[in-house]
Design goal:
- There is one protein chain.
- The longest helix has 11 residues.
- The protein is of the alpha/beta class and 345 residues long.
- The chain starts with a strand and ends with a strand.
- Helices cover 27% and strands 23% of the residues.
- Helix 5 packs across helix 6 and helix 6 runs parallel beside helix 7.
- The strands form three sheets. Strands 3, 4, 5, 6, 7, 14 and 15 form a seven-stranded mixed β-sheet that branches. Strands 10-9-8-11-12-13 form a six-stranded parallel β-sheet, with helices on both faces.
Length: 345
């Protein structure tokens, strides 16, 4: 079988790898039917995630068909079509018992494409399969479902819920890539008064408008006056960082009102300055987080009910064996207009 292998900073290859097999009684093996590339994969290739060792198969977003199950798997059968979550959960450690699956201490958490081989391959081993997969109803397409592997629960939990978005809020999302757009889409569920999107790329700002942002700005056009004009001079109630750069984090803290909330979603590879000399007096709440995916069943129900339309998030569709070209497309959104690149069998 073939997979997308990390070869060290800046290096990747679509190459032959050992077949995926059941190694633990709680494992399942899936045939990968649909997968996507995540911004975190680009951070890995940029050397920002040193835990990922050369030789690792990347990827943590996939839909597949179960082809093998371990002896202890009780909730799946061969032939089931499943969403493979980006987070694996043992189900029994302290954090899993609190639904904080991202912090699993018994071999789970974010492991796919990180500390074990991931899903950008023809087949993939899924640890803790009963708790780390979701059987899909026939009316949900693989293209729809794969958006729930990571970006929707990440944006919803780490951005919208951690940020405490409430009806009537002014919400600013810095970064209108896939995660930022998913934050806009799910923030709308709470009826904010305004959603402001900030990004360098006009194509992404247009996508933000299509998904519900009523104000769009480039970083060069960002002025506190724009935000304050929407908020009687106070600043935004909630600001979400969805890029992962020091300057975007600092921009977020400059736009939030006293008593407001800054929810950091982005993956940071460099230190960011926390200006406590200015912020200590402003009663701010700043949250960080790795997604736990406890919201995935709710998001799937909303998708089935037609309350979430994720169709606008996929801009490019390629066969899985063209993943090298897909990475080139995804990594250059200013030229390609790429949001999510869907790879199918």
């Amino acid at each position: 079988m073939k997979g997308l292998v990390y070869g060290g900073s800046g290096h990747r290859s679509w190459t032959d790898i050992p077949d995926a097999t059941v190694r633990d009684p709680r494992d399942a093996v899936i045939r990968v039917d649909a997968a996507t590339i995540c911004g975190t994969d680009l951070h890995i290739l940029g050397g920002d995630v040193p835990e990922v060792e050369p030789g690792r198969v990347l990827g943590h977003e996939a839909v597949g068909t179960v082809v093998e199950i371990g002896a202890a798997v009780t909730g799946l059968s061969v032939g089931d079509r499943v969403l493979a979550s980006c987070i694996s959960a043992c189900g029994s450690c302290r954090f899993c018992r609190e639904s904080a699956y991202g912090q699993c201490r018994a071999g789970g958490g974010w492991i796919l494409g990180h500390t074990v081989n991931g899903v950008q391959a023809e087949y993939a081993r899924i640890p803790f399969a009963d708790l780390s997969t979701y059987r899909l109803p026939p009316r949900v397409s693989s293209e729809q479902a794969v958006m729930l592997a990571d970006i929707l629960p990440t944006a919803y939990e780490v951005g919208v819920l951690n940020g405490g978005v409430r009806p009537g809020d002014t919400v600013v999302v810095v970064g209108a890539g896939p995660i930022g757009l998913a934050a806009i889409l799910t923030a709308r569920l709470f009826s904010p008064a305004h959603i402001v999107a900030i990004d360098k790329a006009e194509s992404r700002l247009q996508a933000a408008k299509n998904l519900g942002a009523d104000v769009t700005l480039t970083p060069e056009r960002v002025a506190l006056g724009t935000i304050r004009a929407l908020t009687d001079g106070l600043g935004a109630d909630v600001v979400m960082e969805a890029v992962g750069l020091p300057q975007t984090f600092e921009l977020c803290t400059s736009m939030v009102r006293p008593g407001g909330r800054v929810a950091n979603i982005g993956v940071h590879g460099k230190p960011a300055t926390l200006h406590l000399e200015e912020l200590w007096i402003r009663n701010l709440t700043i949250t960080t987080g790795l997604v736990d995916t406890y919201s995935t069943p709710d998001l799937l129900d909303m998708l089935v009910a037609g309350q979430l339309d994720v169709s606008a998030l996929v801009t490019h569709r390629l066969p899985l064996d063209e993943i090298m070209r897909a990475y080139d497309v995804f990594a250059d959104p200013a030229r390609t207009g790429a949001l999510k690149v869907l790879l199918t069998r």
